[in-house]
Design a protein that fits this description.
The complex is a heterodimer of chains A (488) and B (515). With 488 residues, chain A is of the alpha/beta class. Helix content of chain A is 45%, strand content 12%. Chain A starts with a helix and ends in a 19-residue tail after the last helix. With 515 residues, chain B is α/β, with parallel strands linked by helices. In chain B, the strands form three sheets. Chain B has a five-stranded parallel β-sheet with strand order 12-11-10-13-14, sandwiched between helices. A four-stranded parallel β-sheet of chain B has the order 3-2-4-5, sandwiched between helices. A four-stranded parallel β-sheet of chain B has the order 7-6-8-9, sandwiched between helices. In chain B, helix 18 links the parallel strand 10 and strand 11. The longest helix of chain B is centred in the C-terminal third of the chain and has 24 residues. Chain B starts with 9 loop residues before the first helix and ends in a 14-residue tail after the last helix. Classes of the chains: A alpha/beta (488), B alpha/beta (515).
């Protein structure tokens, strides 16, 4: 297929899909859909509207500010207890689903997969929940004495009933002398989980960064770096960390997958902040730059091409010893990843992929697929901003459909028209496409596999994509006596 | 580094020595107790297993730890999906809906349709009417439902949105687009009750809003309704319908979500199965309604009994006795003898129970879950001679449930050893399992951490189950469902027996090939 026809098909698909909407919704949605290619300017990556209110009444895949704060940024901090403050549901639905790996004695000195809730009743709504919150904080300190702090993650009602959780937190912090951090991340704030990331970052800025106690006796080296914006999904940060250490760097903090409170507090001692998920932690990186003078760079550890490029970019910030070691690291692993490519590329080459995820992945994983000879024909962000789309332009290598906050209807139609070989998105979408007979990989949870960051992880990624695309199960859909085409 | 001939994922990758080294080195920066003082962590770990800790834990009033319940809209969505071509619509923030859909999808391994009207700050200030006006129109245009079942999140409830007025307003403003779509609505505040309350509120609202006035009721002597309740076992729905069919074709399941979460490969269908709206509208005409979950249909029962003046019965066809009662109720209401097929099924079940009884007999169980599920499961354990040592119901209804449970437990010769724990959570249960241990734990996926901490094997029966596949496809209701329960529990006991006796040359004299 030549690029022109692909582009035409993509444009037709958009036109076709917009027909279903009533006028008001159509004029909204058409600004979020477009086509772009590596050449030229002012394509969809520049023009797509993003970070806007979701059209009401559709099946959006977006989450909320609470999900961004509790679920993404704070939740993985392992030695703190994160209270879901409000009714019972939010904490339950977000319990232990994100695969933020960590090491610890859960329930004793680490708490990530547990669910702490103030379980609001009508009485708490009517009379306020501050008293209950105060008591909850005290009970936690009795039953979980090894917690190194508590965060209070607000659910929708908190900001609506006039509670002052920040005052309760302040009082408890004074009484217990442990960090107690109230986060006003009510789900109705903003348009997606994105504002929750920002609010969570702001609370780290205001409540953790000023705490110099952990930094007092810290012995620095010239090679100290911090990993920022890696949630250690399936162990991603560990398979990243090993490379940085082999380069000769010292990773002093891991934000926030498998992180401790101390790791948050000592990060300002880093010489360089390494930012993986730009979307969810650029705010605090900028703050550390302004406040502590720590430079930050973005990197991408998906697939060997991007990993190698990133390692060199990081090494360039350090001396020649590091640069030399980095080249040795690259050489050591490239033999293995070349063998991975040799093994899997013939089985995956030319396969078309449509992506729909969040954070950094709609652009960051493109390179990993391309290392395997696969092509991205569509990508989009659940909660991206303009700067994410601009960065996407640099990653695409052919005409690509760009869709922002795409809903289930649109994605289903796009897939039906563009007929990719693989869809890579989330659990809510997974079974829709599998029922259509399409291989699918969850790219939020790595479909219960992973890690996917770093060289070792690329071998897993390649194996998983091969497993999805070349499984015999997809060939069984049509019964031998059926004449009509499946999915037609 | 990865061995290209044997690529391993995180499970084994991180066990390689180079990664163990990375994890060890990381501890230097952590400062949490395990890395700075493993002895102290161990000391506290032991203390959490003590009677002292148990007492402090049970005294907890304000913080819930590891709950065994969810919130109202989740149940409302299940109720809505029990009707044909129905789109559940949540009036509130879309974050909630992302959670509900993920939760059901992780359990059923199936898509879960549901929309929201994406209320945000402006809606918090001005109310959500404009969201609803746009939302209902967009939903209707895109998903072409016959019915939209509107429930609410806590946000909409706190700001006091009036659903009835909003739906009327939205219809008036829709330029006719919503004229042919049925819109039902229920208030489902998350800070009241649990997911079963939401099921109840939505079911009651759908039935009330679809049915005509009582004056227009036309009694249909043959018609019987069955409401399944918040039933995560799709096989149970199928089996109940099969049983009902044996008594006649005028027995209708109201809220039949079986097919919605059980569609085949080949094409994606947004809607599948469900009670027809015609059947829902004529539910009022039935001679009687049987609810299979008394405590998931408390308000719905009031509508049926008080507003409809209809015969109402609650049965719980889980286990032998519960199924017997259900069958007898159907026989009584239809005036028909129990069909021979059910006699055969019953005899086969009892035969199987008599084949396997030595293994469940005298075994101690801890079990947790929803109120009606527990009434059924505990009666089955008692029927088998098992001991329901701890029965924990986080969302136990205040009225009646504990008495109902006590009556079941009283049938056991070990009744005095059994304890009922209404309103308690799974961190409470953790203490109980350490201080008053049991042989087996029965419950949902969240029991996994209790298994890890206590070593007590978890038998996965309940909702949600995210980490085992396809169990929801089976029945736990009726005689065949009881046979499934018997199979799962007995074989879990036998697996554990093998586990305990497998050590060669030490314990494997008892590692028998015949059990």
């Amino acid at each position: 297929m030549v690029a022109g026809t692909l582009e035409e098909l993509q444009k037709e698909a958009i036109e076709e899909i917009l027909k279903v909407y009533p006028e008001k919704a159509r004029s909204n949605r058409e600004k979020h859909l477009g086509v772009d290619s590596p050449e030229g300017v002012k394509g969809a990556c520049d023009k797509t509207k993003s970070n806007k209110q979701t059209v009401p009444g559709v099946m959006s895949q977006r989450g909320c500010a609470y999900a961004g704060s509790k679920g993404v940024v704070w939740g993985p901090v392992k030695d703190m207890i994160h209270i879901s403050h409000g009714p019972i549901g939010c904490g339950q639905y977000s319990r232990a689903g994100r695969r933020n790996y960590y090491v610890g004695l859960t329930g004793v000195d680490t708490f990530v997969t547990m669910n702490f809730s103030t379980d609001f009743s009508e009485k708490d709504i009517v009379f306020g929940g501050d008293k209950k919150l105060k008591q909850a904080l005290e009970e936690i300190d009795v039953l979980f004495p090894l917690n190194n702090g508590i965060s209070i993650q607000s659910e929708c009602p908190i900001g609506l009933i006039g509670d002052d959780i920040h005052a309760v937190a302040k009082k408890h912090k004074a009484d217990s002398s442990k960090p107690t951090i109230a986060v006003s991340c009510e789900g109705f704030r903003g348009v997606s989980q994105s504002l929750g990331h920002h609010i969570a970052n702001d609370m780290i800025r205001d409540e953790v960064m000023p705490d110099a106690s952990a930094r007092k006796d810290f012995e620095s080296t010239p090679y100290d770096v911090a990993i920022i914006g890696d949630y250690n999904i399936g162990g991603d940060a560990w398979s990243s960390r090993i490379l940085l250490e082999e380069m000769g760097l010292r990773v002093i903090a891991q934000w926030s997958g498998d992180a401790t409170y101390k790791e948050l507090a000592i990060a300002p001692k880093a010489k360089l902040n390494l930012l993986h998920c730009y979307r969810s932690m650029n705010y605090i990186s900028r703050h550390m730059e302004q406040e502590f003078g720590i430079p930050w760079i973005e990197y991408n550890f998906f697939g060997p091409s991007k990993t190698t490029e990133s390692l060199r970019k990081i090494a360039a910030c350090f001396d020649d010893t590091i640069k030399a070691k980095t080249e040795a690291v690259i050489e050591k692993y490239t033999k293995m990843t070349d063998a991975v490519i040799e093994k899997y590329k013939p089985r995956l080459e030319g396969k078309k992929v449509m992506l729909y995820v969040g954070g950094l992945r709609p652009r960051h994983v493109i390179g990993a697929y391309e290392d395997l000879g696969m092509e991205i024909v569509g990508t989009g962000y659940e909660f991206g901003h303009g700067d994410d789309y601009k960065r996407t332009k640099e990653e695409i290598s052919k005409s690509t459909l760009i869709y922002d906050d795409v809903n289930e209807y649109e994605l289903e139609q796009f897939v039906k028209i563009l007929k990719p070989d693989l869809v890579a998105s989330g659990v809510k979408e997974k079974y829709v496409f599998q029922k259509m007979g399409l291989p699918f990989r969850q790219m939020h949870s790595w479909d219960y596999s992973g890690p996917y960051h770093g060289y070792d992880a690329f071998a897993i990624f390649a194996k998983d994509m091969d497993l999805a695309l070349n499984s015999p199960v997809w060939s069984h859909t049509k019964a031998p006596w059926t004449k009509t085409e499946i999915g037609a | 580094m990865q061995d290209i001939e044997n690529i391993v994922n995180g499970q084994k990758l991180f066990l390689k020595p180079e990664y163990q080294e990375v994890l060890k080195n990381k501890k230097e920066f952590e400062g949490n107790m395990g890395s700075v003082n493993p002895a102290k962590a161990e000391e506290i770990s032991e203390w959490t297993k003590s009677w002292d800790y148990r007492e402090k834990n049970l005294a907890r009033e304000a913080i819930t730890v590891n709950p065994a319940k969810a919130c109202q809209p989740l149940g409302a969505i299940m109720a809505g999906l029990g009707f044909e071509d129905t789109m559940p619509y949540v009036h509130g923030s879309h974050g909630c809906v992302a959670y509900f859909r993920s939760y059901f999808t992780r359990h059923f391994k199936e898509p879960t349709p549901c929309v929201s009207d994406s209320m945000s700050e402006s809606a918090a200030v001005f109310g959500g009417l404009s969201n609803m006006k746009d939302g209902l129109r967009n939903c209707n245009a895109m998903y072409k439902p016959k019915m939209i079942a509107v429930s609410t999140t806590c946000m909409a409830e706190v700001i006091g949105d009036d659903l009835n007025a909003f739906v009327i307003g939205a219809k008036e403003d829709a330029e006719g687009e919503l004229d042919n779509t049925v819109i039902t609505h229920a208030h489902t505040p998350s800070f009241v009750g649990s997911h079963i309350t939401g099921y109840d509120n939505m079911m009651k609202s759908i039935l009330e809003q679809l049915s005509p006035e009582r004056s227009e009721k036309v009694l249909n002597e043959e018609r019987i309704n069955i409401i399944p309740g918040f039933e995560p076992y799709l096989g149970s729905l199928a089996e109940i319908k099969e049983i009902a069919k044996l008594f006649g074709d005028k027995i209708v399941m109201i809220g039949d979500h079986e097919e919605q979460w059980n569609t085949g490969a080949g094409e994606y269908k947004l809607y599948a199965g469900g009670t027809t709206l015609d059947n829902a509208k004529t539910a009022i005409n039935a001679k009687a309604t049987i609810s299979l979950q008394k405590y998931s249909t408390v308000q719905t029962a009031k509508t049926i009994k008080v507003k409809w003046k209809q015969d109402y019965a609650a049965c719980n066809p889980i286990g032998l006795g519960g199924t017997d009662e259900f069958i007898m109720k159907l026989s009584e209401l239809t005036g028909k003898d129990v069909p021979e097929e059910l006699n055969v099924q019953r005899a086969q079940l009892v035969d199987a129970m008599q084949d396997s009884y030595p293994y469940m007999h005298g075994k101690k169980f801890a079990i947790y879950g929803d109120p009606d599920f527990l009434l059924g499961l505990v009666s089955f354990i008692v029927e088998m001679g098992g001991i329901p040592t701890h029965v924990l119901c986080h969302n136990a209804p205040k009225k009646g449930w504990e008495d109902d449970m006590q009556k079941i437990i009283d049938k056991s010769p070990w009744a005095s050893e059994c304890q009922i724990w209404p309103g308690k959570d799974l961190w409470h249960l953790r203490s109980l399992l350490f201080t008053e241990p049991v042989d087996f734990l029965i419950g949902n996926v969240y029991g996994k951490e209790l298994y890890r901490d206590t070593g007590i094997p978890l038998i996965r029966i309940g909702f949600p189950i995210f980490d085992r596949h396809h169990l929801h496809r089976y029945s736990i209701s009726g005689y065949k469902g009881a046979l499934n329960l018997l199979t799962w529990i007995t074989n879990a006991i036998l697996d554990q027996l093998d586990e305990e006796t497998k050590e060669i040359g030490k314990t494997d004299f008892f590692f028998d090939c015949v059990r």
